[in-house]
Amino acid sequence: MTDEQIVDLFWARSENAIRETELKYGRLCRSLAGNIVKNPSDAEECVNDAYLRAWNAIPPHRPRSYQTFLCMLVKRVSLDRVRHNDAKKRGVPASFLEELEELIGSSAEAPEAALDKEELRRTVGEFLSKQNDRARKIFLRRYWFCEPIPQIAADLGEKEERIASQLFRTRKKLRAYLAKEGFLP
Questions:
Q1: What pLDDT digit, counting tens, does each position of 104-143 carry?
Q2: Do domains 3-89 and 95-180 have the same CATH topology?
Q3: Domain ranges of the chain
Q4: CA 88 to CA 138: how far, in whole Å?
Q5: Were 3 and a residue from 25, 66, 68, 108 both cysteine, which residue would form a disulfide, CB within 3.0 to 4.6 Å?
Q6: What distances in angstroms separate CA 79 from CA 17, 41, 112, 146, 175, one per listed residue?
Q7: How far apart are CA 134 and CA 139, in angstroms?
Q8: May I ask the CATH class of domain 3-89?
Q9: Selection from 25, 41, 35, 40 nearest residue 152 by Cα
Q10: In 3D, which of 7, 25, 26, 27 has the Cα closest to residue 17?
Q11: Mind giving me the DSSP string for the chain?
């Protein structure tokens, strides 16, 4: 079933929309949530919460890319769960968030309050489109899909240090690019 057909099921308020979403994207969603929350039962709960959010958002919203929309929902729910769990135990935030903290600040809300989110997304997208294919894929796997460095390294048949070094260089370039575009001092 195509993404457009799944979205049409949501618009028709058919419960098959959730079933088709699970068939097509369940594995991807559980993997993404699991990479963030590190707990299979929490990951499953996050995916179910994301499906509920999709149900409540469609209609009135019709996403341009259903897969991207769904992954964004899973990521938001999962990050909320990590923040909630960290607040409960006063733990350290997830390591992948710390890696980008120097670019976006320590508060997840601060950049949203200070910057136009769409402009920032566009600028980061432009930056990534100018990177070589390898750097772009590694960056997206780490920061969009929240995959751990050892998993990326194993999948690519490379050493973890090389992947970490690539991410460091890409973050440094992104920081310079954001500064040049006026997002950072």
A1: 554 444 444 444 566 777 888 889 999 999 999 999 888 8
A2: no
A3: 3-89, 95-180
A4: 32
A5: 66
A6: 24, 15, 15, 10, 23
A7: 9
A8: mainly alpha
A9: 35
A10: 7
A11: --HHHHHHHHHTT-THHHHHHHHHHHHHHHHHHHHHH--HHHHHHHHHHHHHHHHHHTTT---SSHHHHHHHHHHHHHHHHHHHHHHHHT-PPPHHHHHHHHHH-S-SSHHHHHS-HHHHHHHHHHHHHTS-HHHHHHHHHHHTS---HHHHHHHHT--HHHHHHHHHHHHHHHHHHHHHTTS--
- Which of the residues in the chain have pLDDT under 70? 86-118, 185
**Global pTM exceeds 0.85:** no
Inter-residue contact 147 to 95 (CB < 8 Å): no
Q: Which amino acid is at 37?
A: V
Q: Residue written as tokens 């200070």?
A: 114
What number does CATH give the domain 95-180? 1.20.140.160
